[in-house]
Amino acid sequence: MDGVRVVVLSDTHAPRRWKACPPRVAEHLRGADVILHAGDVCTAGVLDELAQYAPVHAVLGNNDGPDVADWGAPERLELELAGLRVAMVHDSGQAKGRLGRMRRWFPGADLVVFGHSHIPLDEHDERLRIFNPGSPTDRRRQPHGTVGLLDVADGALVRAEIVPVT
What we know:
five-stranded mixed beta sheet, 4 helices
């Protein structure tokens, strides 16, 4: 099976923070096979913009309006990418106990992608990996705006990286 290159975004907060796709984000999107957006898009136009690069899967964030839901973003989503079972949710709850909570919420998942905190995170145990790409446009207390890059092949996450874009 061929590998799949995934770009993971969250918390773009358009139009206040995302007026148009930032050039350093676009560089990564041009190589994407699939784009995952973990919520707080804020306007569905961002999802349409992203879809010009690759197919998009998104979940609703706490700042997303009816237009994002109408676009097709549910509160939780489970999908398969090149045999890897991926779950998505915007808010994974407090940091304490997060891995166990994600295992309970998504017992069939190999990887859970989430957002909300704007804090990049790549953590795992023997059963599950959880991944927050941070935000490309609203870094809050982080040194850089970030996106996530995943390479998936034959049911395995071959590479996971959080890269600065600001």
